[in-house]
């Protein structure tokens, strides 16, 4: 790939080669697929389209693997003196952790992670400040948090640990709203609402942006250490305050409840952010790794899977010099205030996926050499629940921005969001169409079954299995043990783990073919009828799906089990030819025994 003087510049030649490679593979496979049947042309048109669209994802994966293998990391410049000696006292950094918790357990997760961040990354000048920003309504939870915060303040200081609770009268825009309000308090001294106050927003603000109401009703900590000229009483009563210019925050870090930054990772992050070559960048997205890979079999399988297809995001970054923002990373505060907050670019009624929408308006880059740790779904049911929620925001984003003009990297990822929405639905429709054609020969008669079998085998091996196994081996050689647990040491171990992961994930994740299309249609109906979006925290989703019995899992996934029984009866009835039986076998196995694997894989590892 070409080397550019500015890291966010894009080589048009690289993009052209990328597109030619990807769509050339799609065209070749689609023509081969077409030649395998004697088609009814009316039936052929949708089936060819569905096949091409589904295969384009496999083709992109293969191209991304080649890019990842044959290009060097694209790394932002950094100030070596900061990495070596520490962050200078004039650089002010604030860690924000927003939450709208309903239980003490959710708060414990957040506060325990925040404590680890302080231990891992505090600097000698104590210029890293850690703030819990909260919308919680439950008085008992608020009291519990207050006691925990006071404990952390005794341990680390009132000039390091803070708690901001937003006034419920200003409870606007949930997580992103409280984050923006907190930044403007520390950057310009706003103690009352000053943005989203125009009449055009009233339909969505519903009185929560009244300039007469103070933004915060509880502030704990020594606010003077945040550069504020004023008192906590001034803030909660909405009085004018000033920010000392030399102590104004320049770096803002936002995390989810379970995120932890490894030791000295913030030092390396800041060294990149303050380098003059990167002053035009707003959002800095670290690479994300799993912190608890050995908690249970599902998490371990997910960790292995991430190592196998982790090249995908990196390759897209190297080609397009852009990465989506995943809601956990760092911002250049001055740029973020100008490009996102004051521009009011996020629509309060259509920003469930606010993190990616922020990246559309403010350039976002991937840090290949800086990591943040997170916990992931502990079971497949939790993933299905959370995935259905994420679809809502993806639908809002695609609907708003797909027709707008953006740089190629941003536009490409909008199509990735679209694939996340309709890709599984398209694949499900193609599977149904294929099964229907075998039952009604007038639609499509198989004339080259062995050729089709070889085509599918080639797709699976060349596009999925081989790249992922090689990537797994190469990444394992780097011994990134915090994401993989016990890293494999040999090709034999990689093949063994890879086959295990592939089999188990197929049995579990093929259930998406039933439930993701249903979730998409449900969200579409709700949005079309104006039903308001309701968000659940990850911790709440985990609690709702934990400790299910085997019977309860099958009850929850009853539609797929019924489909599995129907497919099984078709397979043993003799109505389907041998190649159709082979085609149906993984689907039937997933629908019938996939729920049992979900239940078993959710159990803790001993």
Task: Describe this structure in a few short sentences.
With 606 residues, the chain is of the alpha/beta class. The protein has helices at 12-35, 41-70, 80-85, 104-121, 139-156, 174-188, 202-205, 232-236, 265-273, 297-309, 311-320, 333-341, 354-361, 380-401, 408-439, 449-476, 481-484, 491-509, 512-528, 538-545, 550-556, 558-573, 578-601, and strands at 37-39, 93-99, 128-134, 161-166, 216-220, 228-229, 242-243, 251-254, 283-290, 329-332, 364-374, 444-446. Helices cover 57% and strands 10% of the residues.
Spell out the key features of this protein:
606 residues, alpha/beta, 8-stranded mixed beta sheet, two-stranded antiparallel sheet, 57% helix
Can you put this structure into words, describing what you see?
There is one protein chain. By secondary structure, this protein is α/β, with parallel strands linked by helices. It has 23 helices and 12 strands. Helix 4 links the parallel strand 2 (93-99) and strand 3 (128-134). An 8-stranded mixed beta sheet has the order 5-4-3-2-8-10-9-11, with helices on both faces. It has a two-stranded antiparallel ribbon with strand order 1-12. Residues 1-5 have low confidence and may be disordered. Helices cover 57% and strands 10% of the residues.
């Amino acid at each position: 790939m070409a080397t550019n003087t500015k890291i966010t510049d894009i080589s048009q030649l690289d993009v052209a080669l990328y597109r030619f490679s990807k769509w050339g593979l799609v065209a070749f496979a689609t023509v081969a697929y077409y030649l395998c049947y004697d088609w009814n042309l009316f039936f052929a048109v949708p089936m060819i389209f569905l096949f091409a669209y589904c295969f384009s994802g496999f083709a992109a994966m293969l191209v991304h693997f080649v890019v990842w293998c044959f290009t060097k990391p694209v790394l932002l410049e950094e100030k070596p003196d900061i990495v070596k000696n520490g962050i200078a006292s004039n650089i002010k950094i604030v860690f924000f952790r927003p939450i709208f918790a309903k239980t003490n357990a959710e708060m414990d997760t957040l506060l325990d992670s925040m404590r680890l961040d302080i231990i891992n990354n505090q600097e000698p000048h104590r210029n890293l400040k850690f703030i819990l920003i909260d919308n919680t309504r439950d008085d008992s939870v608020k009291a519990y948090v207050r006691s925990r915060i006071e404990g952390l303040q005794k341990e680390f200081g009132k000039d390091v640990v803070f708690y901001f609770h937003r006034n419920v009268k200003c409870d606007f825009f949930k997580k992103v709203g409280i984050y923006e309000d907190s930044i403007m308090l520390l950057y310009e001294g706003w103690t009352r609402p000053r943005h989203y106050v125009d009449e055009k927003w009233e339909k969505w603000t519903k009185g929560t942006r009244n300039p007469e109401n103070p933004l915060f009703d509880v502030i704990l900590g020594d606010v003077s250490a945040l550069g504020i000229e004023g008192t906590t009483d001034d803030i909660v009563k909405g009085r004018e305050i000033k920010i000392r210019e030399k102590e104004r925050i320049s770096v803002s870090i936002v995390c989810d409840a379970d995120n932890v930054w490894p030791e000295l990772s913030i030092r390396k992050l800041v060294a990149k952010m303050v380098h003059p070559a990167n002053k035009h960048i707003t959002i800095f997205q670290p690479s994300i790794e799993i912190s608890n890979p050995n908690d249970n079999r599902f998490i371990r399988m997910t960790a292995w899977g991430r190592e196998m297809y982790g090249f995908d995001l990196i390759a897209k970054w190297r080609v397009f010099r852009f990465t989506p923002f995943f809601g956990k990373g760092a911002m250049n505060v001055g740029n973020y205030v100008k490009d996102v907050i004051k521009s009011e670019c996020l629509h309060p009624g259509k920003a469930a996926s606010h993190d990616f929408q922020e990246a559309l308006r403010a350039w976002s880059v991937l840090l290949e050499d800086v990591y943040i740790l997170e916990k992931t779904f502990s079971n497949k049911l939790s993933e299905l629940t959370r995935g259905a929620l994420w679809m809502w925001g993806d639908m809002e984003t695609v609907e708003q921005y797909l027709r707008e003009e953006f740089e190629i990297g941003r536009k490409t990822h909008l199509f990735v969001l679209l694939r996340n929405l309709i890709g599984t639905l398209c694949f499900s429709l193609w599977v149904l169409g294929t099964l229907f054609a075998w039952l009604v020969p007038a639609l499509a008669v198989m004339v080259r079954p062995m050729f089709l079998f070889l085509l599918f085998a080639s797709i699976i091996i060349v596009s999925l299995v081989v790249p992922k196994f090689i990537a797994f081996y190469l990444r394992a050689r780097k011994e990134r043990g915090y994401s993989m647990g016990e890293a494999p040491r040999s090709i034999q171990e990689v093949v063994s783990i890879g086959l295990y992961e592939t089999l188990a994930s197929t049995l579990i994740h093929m259930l998406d073919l039933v439930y993701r299309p249903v979730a998409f249609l449900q969200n579409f109906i709700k949005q079309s009828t104006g039903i308001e979006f309701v968000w659940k925290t990850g911790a709440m989703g985990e609690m709702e799906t934990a400790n299910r019995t085997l019977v309860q899992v099958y009850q929850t996934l009853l539609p797929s089990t019924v489909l599995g029984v129907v497919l099984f009866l078709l397979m043993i009835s003799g109505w389907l030819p041998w190649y159709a039986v082979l085609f149906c076998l993984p689907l039937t196995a997933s629908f019938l025994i996939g729920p049992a694997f979900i239940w078993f894989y959710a159990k803790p590892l001993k």
